[in-house]
Structures are given as C-alpha cells and as structure tokens.
C-alpha cells in the first residue's frame, strides 16, 4: 500500500532550493512530467528552508492551475541532519541551491551518505572537482550517482562537442572544435544575481582549483590527431557565423575535458549497473563514434560594441573579484558592475520568454587522419554544427535538468552504479539528445566543407 503520510512518505524526486529563481522554473518544468503516462516521475516533493517561499514557488509554477498537493519539506544546508532525513526519503535529489562552493558540499555528502542519486546545475569547476576528489570512491561503493553541471553549464557544450565529433566519419577525424555562443533577445538579456554571485566567487576561488589539481593524480589525456590549435587573438571576428567573439571563462571546456579524460580511461564508456546485452552493444557503438578534439568556448555578439560591453564586465569581475572589498562592491551593486547583464530581482517573465541562444561548433580536422602528420598538421576539413534553444538560465537549464532526472529515474540500469562524474560521460549514450530535441533544443549540421591547406 502506498505511504501517504506527509511525515514519512518517500518520493521519486525532491527539488532542493525550489524557492530560488532558477528553482521555481525547475519546478514548473518538472510538473509537466509528473504523473503523465509513461513518466517515471510519479511522486515529487519540494524542499528548502522556508516553507512559505516553497508554497509561493509551487503556486507560481502551477499557475494558472491551482497548486497540486505536493509535499513541502523543510531542509537547511547548514543543518546536515535535515539534509540526511530528506535524502532518506527520495531516490533522486535535484540541487538548485547555489553558489555551490558555499552551499553544495553538505548536500552531496548527505546524498552519498544515504546512497541516493544527485544532479545539480552548478557551473563552478572548483566545486565539481572538489566533490569528485572527496566523494567519488564512496559514491561508487554505495551506488550513489552524483552529476554536476546538468544545466546550460555544461550539457550543450558536452552534447554539442559529441554531436560535432560524430559527424566526422572515418577516415576523417576532428582536431578541434570551437564553440561560439550567441545570446539573443527581443527585449533584454538579463540573468538573476545567483549566477553572478557564483561567477564572482569563482574568481575568488581560482587559486584553490589549481591547488586541488596539483594534489590529485594526473588524468589521462585523449590522443587527438594533429597539433594543438594556436592561441588566437583576444577578439576574433568569426565570419562563418557572423560574430565578434572572445573566450568565455565558463566551466564548459573544463567539464568536457573531464568527460574526455574519463572516456580515455574507459574507452567503451562507463558500464551500467544492470545493463542488457543490447544496451552494452549500444553504449560501445556510441562511444566508438565519438572522437576527442581540442575544445574551447567563446561568446559572441553581432557588433564590436557588444563585445566591448562583455570585456568591461569581465574585467570588473576578474579584477574586483580577487579581493574582499572588491567582491563586496561587486555583490552589492550587481547591475552597475555587470553593466545590466544581471539584476537582483532577476529577469521578468517577458525577458525570459523573449530570449534564446545559438551555439555554433566549428570543428576543424582532417579528411583523412593520415594528413595530421603532413603539412604542419594544418586542418583540411571543417564541419559546422549548431545547438539552439530558448533562454539559457531559466528555460534551457530546467529542460536539461529535468530530462537528465527522467533518464536517471527511468533508465537507472543503464547508468553507472555510482560515482561522481561530469554529465557527458553519463548521459552521452542515452537518449538525452532526442529528449532535448523533443523539448525545444535543436541539434543541426550546418555545413561540411574542404579547406585549402
Ligand atoms: N548551470 C546553469 O546554466 C545555471 C543556470 C541558472 C542558475 N544556475 C546556478 O543555480 C544557482 C542558483 O541560482 P539562482 O539564481 O536560482 O539563485 P537564488 O534565486 O538566490 O536561489 C538560491 C536558492 O538557494 C536556497 N538557499 C540558500 N541558502 C540555503 C540554505 N541555507 N538552505 C537551504 N536552501 C538555501 C534559497 O532559499 P531561500 O529562498 O530560502 O533563500 C534559494 O532557493 C547558482 O549557483 C547559479 O549559478 C546555473
């Protein structure tokens, strides 16, 4: 008999931080799949430290329908016993409480302690790598799957690189792929202050990431045909996609490198906990078509002036973020120092609705792998692919997170028993790409051409 006691009932999924700006959009996305035919999501609860804010979030997410009877559970990240009690009542926890380097560790600790699965939307490399160093072994042992970066950071980069690399059919091989991100809007592009805070703290913690890496064993490096790409100019005019672009210091390239390192160490991907022969075959086939490449991400705008605005914002965060007084100024006046990119009250619903993104992947490589050793290794082939979708932070991120959650709930046997991993190596061979396409995020091949050497 089902347990309907609100104090002890168990759930398929709990969303922690459901009262946050992103959290409420994640709740809205999850409700679309709750109890629908064939959905593995039958029971859901929302968790956070303030039950009236959780109730407001649920009402907003369900509108114009009345809020469904979903339990609201009290849990505070500064109270480990509340987290452990929460984790003991669910199969999977989605964490929307950030900045993750401040609040994330006790949540991962509780999930691993309880042996449940965990996904988050962190875009903070130091947090992700610290969680891997601290909890991977125990997570493997107890069967707790911990995957960070299941949002715009960094699933489009992971899936987009794989999609581009799979277009290179033998004997052709890629050498590099550069992703160009373009954010578009009919009104204004605005982010909530939560993401800005995470970025500011990221600058402050950059040194800790270097220190952590120095203390860890070196990861395997993939064998990539041809030389590494040359360092380009600070500002690039990329004619093929009509954008002025600069390097984007996001987590994407770091997360992709972790996936490629794990793939190099496990050339057939990660074994599922209870896979069928058919799925083993499918997984091996999938990974045999993914060819590693050097990878970087740039952000682009149509005008040079737009790039200048990005550079000034980056300089403010990069310089002021390094010392305490500078950080307090950045955090006190987000709109001023981000030149309007971030707002304390977040974007309006209209601003969210009217925004979208395009991410081009310009892959360069060789029409035949043997050419990598000739002519200074200059690429002679180019394949351009593109991912596009709705607004990145509050529409695309919830779509990705919820689809990853549905895969964990519905296809657990095909996923690794446990461990701390980046999303690409876990979800690459699943139907995540098809699911994203069905939910408004498209993957396209734009062009394939030969380059003069
Ligand atoms: N991957 C991506 O592309 C992506 C996209 C969007 C956002 N994000 C990340 O998501 C995170 C959240 O961003 P946001 O804009 O939604 O921030 P936000 O609006 O400030 O939400 C933060 C949430 O954390 C909760 N929280 C804070 N302290 C807590 C505690 N001690 N115990 C329990 N809950 C606590 C807040 O609860 P209260 O309501 O009670 O304060 C709120 O629900 C950020 O790290 C951001 O970078 C990532």
UniProtKB/TrEMBL annotation:
Species, as recorded: Elaeis guineensis var. tenera
Encoding gene (name): LOC105032237
A single Gene Ontology CC term: plasma membrane
Matching Pfam families: Sacchrp_dh_NADP
SUPFAM superfamilies listed in its UniProt record: NAD(P)-binding Rossmann-fold domains
Keyword Iron-sulfur: no
Domain Saccharopine dehydrogenase NADP binding: 14-146
Keywords: Membrane, Transmembrane, Transmembrane helix
The protein's name in its UniProt record: Probable mitochondrial saccharopine dehydrogenase-like oxidoreductase At5g39410
Signal peptide span: none
Organism domain of life: Eukaryota
Family of the protein in this entry: Belongs to the saccharopine dehydrogenase family.
Transmembrane regions listed in the UniProt entry: 304-325
GO biological process: glycolipid biosynthetic process
InterPro entries linked to this entry: NAD(P)-bd_dom_sf, Saccharopine_DH-like_oxidrdct, Sacchrp_dh_NADP-bd
